[in-house]
Give the backbone structure.
Amino acid sequence: AKEAEIQIKNLYQSASTYYTKTGNLPGDCYEEMAQAGAIEMKQSVIDSWEFQCDWFFDDDDREIVGLISATSTEANEAGAGKTIVYDILSGTFTGYGIE
């Protein structure tokens, strides 16, 4: 689960940088930023976790809010279907492997 936590934080940081450069959040979690050269992810992470970003830019508070989740795939040694969720606003993780 640590691997997913680290990658989720990378996604958030990259999205912040991407927003600063383009004025938009990426429409997906990873592909758009990867094509723009804004993020790199190890193939093993791509194979082991499926990421979903339900985020938007709050114009009033001038920050990204929402959730980023990672769900394990069949390729993950933990098995498929384990989910970790990161709440951007509170900076907290919940779900699989979180105490």
User: Anything to note?
Assistant: The CA atoms of residues 51 and 70 lie 4 Å apart. The chain has a mean pLDDT of 95. The longest strand covers residues 49-58. The two ends are 11 Å apart (CA to CA).
